[in-house]
User: Which sequence fits this backbone?
């Protein structure tokens, strides 16, 4: 019995020895990970591009930078570095395009270009953040330097973008004053013509116009309603009715002939289903019915 136990014990020891020999060591079982390397000339070039955001965009051929070879371990790294290069250049291009939008250009065009600029800025910041875990320790300082530079440029450009926005608002304000004066004197056709120019350049022209035309008097509400009745559905008159109804509710004036005409105007917008204002008109109709008397 003891002899049999001895044989079994030897077999177990031998089996364990064989298994141990076939298993890789703990260190060798974890493959070494290649990390991103940011070449000095690449970093300098990116920072130079960021420093020149105010200069006209130059769509010249891209430079070749020293990076790791595109093997399986560094493909993600190389892709991110390439994305950063493209993002910086596209950010420059989008910013310059935004600066070229004139004050009199349609607000829709301005919104599109501004959205592209802001989207590219978000993409660049996200890509830089994703690169942090991949970059080698000796290059982490360089990457952080680049991230700080992007943040510095972002703050600087934000100030410039706010200035552009302010200029557009001043232009819209000047146009709105012309419209307001014409509504007050009952010159509706010229007021509509000027309003079409204003609607192209202002996010919400009625927020400016209605409070300056209607200030609580019934005859002022009458002038405003006459104007709204002539506004093209594509110019979204629902915005004017919303402001007017809210102010008349506050003044306890939502009654009589003016209220009836407002009701008809809202119903006409609902029936027309033009200009993406149907849901707003339905919501306003509900509010109107609760407060009209």
Assistant:
């Amino acid at each position: 019995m003891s002899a049999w136990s001895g044989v079994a014990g030897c077999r177990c020891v031998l089996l364990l020895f064989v298994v141990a020999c076939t298993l890789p060591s703990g260190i060798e079982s974890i493959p070494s990970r290649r990390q991103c390397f940011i070449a000095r000339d690449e970093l300098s070039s990116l920072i130079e591009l960021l420093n020149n955001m105010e200069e006209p965009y130059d769509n010249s051929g891209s430079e070749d930078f020293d990076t790791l070879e595109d093997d399986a371990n560094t493909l993600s790294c190389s892709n991110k570095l390439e994305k950063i290069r493209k993002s910086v250049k596209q950010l420059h291009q989008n910013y310059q395009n935004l600066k070229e939008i004139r004050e009199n250009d349609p607000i829709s065009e301005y919104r599109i270009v501004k959205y592209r600029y802001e989207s590219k800025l978000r993409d660049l910041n996200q890509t830089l953040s994703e690169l942090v875990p991949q970059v080698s320790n000796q290059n982490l300082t360089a990457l952080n330097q680049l991230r700080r530079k992007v943040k510095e440029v972002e703050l600087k450009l934000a100030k410039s973008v706010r200035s552009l926005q302010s200029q557009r608002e001043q232009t819209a304000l000047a146009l709105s004053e012309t419209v307001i004066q014409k509504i007050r004197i009952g010159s509706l056709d010229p007021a509509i013509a000027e309003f079409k120019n204003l609607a192209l350049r202002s996010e919400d022209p009625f927020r400016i116009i209605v409070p300056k035309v209607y200030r609580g008097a019934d005859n002022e509400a009458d002038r405003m309603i006459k104007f709204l009745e002539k506004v093209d559905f594509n110019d979204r008159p629902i915005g004017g009715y919303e402001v007017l109804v809210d102010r008349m509710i506050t003044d306890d004036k939502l009654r009589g002939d003016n209220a009836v005409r407002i009701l008809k105007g809202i119903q006409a917008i609902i029936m027309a289903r033009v200009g993406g204002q149907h849901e707003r008109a339905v919501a306003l109709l509900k509010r109107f019915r609760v407060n009209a008397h």
